[in-house]
Structure formats: C-alpha cells, structure tokens
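[RESIDUES AND BACKBONE]
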Amino acid sequence: MKYAILGDIHSNLEALTAVLADAKEQAVTHYACVGDVVGYNANPVECVNLVREASPTVVRGNHDHYCSHDDNLSGFHPLAADAVDWTRKQLPEEMRLYLRKLKLVGMLESFTLVHSTLDMPEMWGYVFDKLEAEAHFHYQTTNVCFFGHTHVPLAFEKSDSVRCGLYTRIQVARGKKYFINVGSVGQPRDGDPRAAYAIYDLIRNQVELRRVGYDFRITQKKILDAGLPGRVAARLAVGR
C-alpha cells in the first residue's frame, strides 16, 4: 500500500496535475492531503474537484479555513489576503461548505495528518525547529505524522531527543516518531520551484520526497490574467 501525501496545493492546477501523473507512475494506491488546497493561485475550483476525486482524507489548512469563512483578514499578509478575498468570490457555496467541514486532524492506517502542528492546530503555528517540533511530539500518538504549512520539506525524528533535517528518503523505524513536512505542490519555498509531495510505502516502511517539474509559466499567466498579485506569480519561478 502506497500513499501519496500532498499539501499546500494552493490552487495551482498545473502543479497538481503533474504531481497526480507522477504519483500514478509510482504505482500509488491511495491519496491524502495535509491541507491548503486553495489560496494564492488561480484555479481553486478545479483543484478542489481534483483533490475530492483523489482522496476522501483531507485536513483543513489555514487558507482552506479563511477562504471558506468570512473572517476578518487583518492579520494576514497582504499578498495572502488579496488571494483569499479573490478565492472567496470564485468558490461556489457548496465548495466553501466542503472546505469548512474539513477536520483539523486526520488519521489513516498508522499515521496522522495535520496542516500545521498537533500542538493547538487551530492556531496554525509554524514548525521550523526542534523546539517547536518537541511541543508537537507531545501530542503525536502514531509512528508518523505528516504536515505542511511551511512549504519547506523538513523531517523531525524523535527518540531520546529530537533531530531535524532535509530528506529525500526516510526509513521509518519502530520505537521512533517522525514528523514529516511533505513540501508544497503549488508554491514551494525551499529554493526549488518544482512541485513537492511525499510517498509513504507502508509495506517497506519508507517515506520518499518527490519533486516534479511543471510549466509554471502557464500558472503565472493565469495569476496575472485573474488580477492576482504579480509577486505571487513571480515566486513560482524561484521557489521562494
């Protein structure tokens, strides 16, 4: 059994289509999503439809939350707020209701899904270091937990202490806990513009980070044509 774990798709249809094609080539059997299907880019409806078709297990990210509610956006970065406001107007009410009802935490087989952290997931905290991961591990009951939110594929491993680092492949060992960021499908921020996702092979107990190229110029044109901020389009070329 092989799971493709996707996250931070952010309405990037070209990246999502490329990732789904790659996952099929890798003989993936199941799909799951750590949230933020929408936001930033120009194809929210199409991306929600594709994710719903691929996976019944999706957790809610902060952009999913704010795009499906009418909450005040005063605390948001202006770029993100502009995109949220635009996305709210694109989504039909049925789709907003779907996003609104997504759970903050999901359980599948022997692993957990969360967008940000199990330490108060509704606060959308960012996990970049070992101290923040330690707070999360206090609440993790499964061997493996996948997350997103930072758009940076980092892995944290806990045994007697917490270790942190970049990864391409992880052999999951008994007696340890793993908190693994799957990177971003639609807006990478680690300096690599290729779409990122992870494959979890439950038979081999192995997690692999996948990078998939796509024509981001198409996505950029859609962003600009929609009147979304030019900086949102520009960052796709550099992965920042």
